[in-house]
Amino acid sequence: MEELFLNRRLREIAGKSTVSFHVPAHNGGKLFKRLGIIDYEDGILGIDTTELPDTDNLHNPQDVIMEAQQAASRIFGSEESFFLVNGTTGGIHAAIMSCTSPGDKLIMDRNSHMSAYNACMLGRIDAVYLKPSIDAQRGIPLPASEETIEEAIQENPDAKAVFLTSPTYYGDCIDIERISKAAHRHGMALIVDAAHGSHLGLSSRLPSPAIRLGADIAICSLHKTLGSFTQSSMLHVNGEMADRERLRSLLRMLQSSSPSYLLMSSLEMAAFVYEKHGERLMEELQGHIDDIAKEFECFENIKLYEGNAGIFDRTKLFVLTTATGASGYEIEELLRERYNIQPEFSTPYGVLFVSSIGNDGSDFDAVRSALCEIDRLKRHGNHQEIPKYPTAMPKALASISSAFYMKKRAVSLEESRGCISGDYIIPYPPGIPLIAPGELIRDDVIEYVTEALGMGMQVNGVGTDENKSVMVIDMPKRHL
Ligand SMILES: Cc1ncc(COP(=O)(O)O)c(C=O)c1O
What we know:
By secondary structure, the chain is α/β, with parallel strands linked by helices. The protein has helices at about 5-15, 30-35, 65-75, 85-100, 115-125, 145-155, 175-185, 220-225, 245-255, 260-275, 280-300, 330-340, 360-375, 400-405, 445-455, and strands at about 20, 80-85, 105-110, 125-130, 135, 140, 160-165, 190-195, 215-220, 235, 305, 315-320, 340-345, 345, 350-355, 410, 420, 425, 460, 470-475. Pyridoxal-5'-phosphate binds near residues 87 and 169.
């Protein structure tokens, strides 16, 4: 190897000291520096160890890992917490399969992260989707309403569990207390994908954490909003609905037998920061958010998304840019190139800034002055034509698990109209499938994907070749 491609790129990025409004929340170590935590400054290689007599074992914890997990469980309000080294992704797989058996029904929001779909595939679980709820004006996938969820619970009394996401990437939350009562009345477990909600509980101005509101399992990406290292998450459990022994087996199966001590130690550190410094840092953050929200009142073109009139996590700052005549992608590029600010992601409609306790006043100053200039842009004069986010429930002709094992062939995106998809079609981020394997590819999906690709969206499952290849299944007639 003559060059260290990845290493060089990472060093270049680290050298730029970009203003970060993206995950992980430690912001290139800035959070730890601010708090005077020097554990990661030197000697990071020295703590990259393995299971030794003194270092315990994640898969059978009896010593320091057990103590660290117990401390986390006390801090976050669970009966038991598990460190995850394969992100919330692995935790979601294990959580769903610990509450269901093959052939069981799982009620899940259609706007779930792809990991929930994959859990259904791995566990051969029959997903009953809640109708997708979309803010079509602003292209924002919303959580299903409480009424819709309760109706699905009533209509599917044989379902074993309910899987919901709260907060969403954009900050919208569900009334978890209400839904947990409804699920429990029907003997169903409530699993909450709280990937974006590890920081909840640090301020009365934020929604409460799902695990404190009656969820049986909540899975939290501490790397996203609390500053543990990328890929490290926690799974919190309460009550008897989840089969704990099965959960333990699944976590052993789905995670490495050599879990990283860097990831685990960073989870312990994030829990420590949450407990010792979290409320103070969150109060500061709330002040910065108040200030920038006031600024938005004076902006003419750009607007701040403040939720879908329900419970909302205001640390997520989705800035709607279309009235400037520019897409979120163009504004993100401008922020990066001209202002050295990196948001989390952009869409045709706007740019998402994930703010966290890792951000300080100087980060917000930089964003404020950049947005002031951007608000005055009005570069293109007319509003840009925005592709319409597909809202219909896809029609499934095969389950995800059976479709996964069927023979597939590649066709161009254009030719895939009316075909059965052999793969997911997923705008990434946010990682919510428009189409899952086994579902019919509709015209509106093709149109949306084609237009959005042209604007700069990344879409998993659509090739980067000229034809924009997608995988389809030729299903025998007897299946149709
Ligand atoms: C809603 C949601 N759930 C789960 C995940 C997976 O989390 P992780 O990256 O920790 O595996 C993501 C990732 O972005 C997500 O947005």
